[in-house]
Design goal:
- By secondary structure, the chain is α/β, with parallel strands linked by helices.
- The protein folds into 2 domains: 183 residues, Purple Acid Phosphatase, chain A, domain 2, CATH 3.60.21; 65 residues, no CATH class.
- Helices cover 33% and strands 17% of the residues.
- It contains 9 helices and 12 strands.
- A hairpin with a 2-residue loop joins strand 8 and strand 9.
- The longest helix is centred in the N-terminal third of the chain and has 14 residues.
- The radius of gyration is 18 Å and the shape is globular.
- The two termini are 16 Å apart.
Length: 263
Amino acid sequence: MKTFVVGDIHGRCAQLLNLLDMLPRDSEKDTLVFLGDLIDRGADAPCCVSHILKLCRENPQRVICLRGNHEQMLMDFLEGRSNLWLTPVVGGERTFEQYTGQSVKVDSEKDLEEMRLLFARSFPVEHLAFMQDLPYYHEDEHAIYVHAGLDEGKHPRESSQNALLWMRDMDFYKNYRGKPCIFGHTPTPLLPLRGRLGRHGIYISHSAVGLDTGYNHQSPLSCLSLPDFNLYQTYADGREETYQITSFIPETLREMQRRAGLA
């Protein structure tokens, strides 16, 4: 049984659908894990949410989607706890426009409340319920899967929600040596240089594996399969790439590969 792990999607529905078509996944035996951040910045966030929601409903034992900080920001905005989601750097205004059909225009607190009410009317109830139910982590025999990272020395069940959703800790990236931890959130160009592997752009350092390969028109959307460490990537121009990763694989996964006759 394999686990296929997909990094941050950020509204790139065409790339997502192409990526899923690439995967040699047995839906009855293999697990599919999404690391969160389905929304914001890209051209079609509603499509990403709808498609992954459908996959999760059809096969809840084998398809897991984690909560990302962008999903959390959307929910915080809806609940009036924070307006961070609509700041330009986040990219939430694109998701807002895709669901409401209207542009974000905020010049006052009253405008913010009107934007909140408009989005609440436009955002499908099933999409909100889906996000509210998203877990903060997943674990199987291969690895631990989180959106952002782990508190030092802690299992995700003991880590803070802030760490699981938001953490950017260079010590974790460089020195984590526990059970392999697959994470997204921080684009690999922002991670320590030593762990960035080849032109495909994933990150591996000891037992920390980063799969957010960035968001721009040249960035791939990435999926890593475990324990074989095959990497699948799709691009905005329709290009597809597959790699067999052989360097810096965590020793625990090396042992799994040996037992499975893969190493």
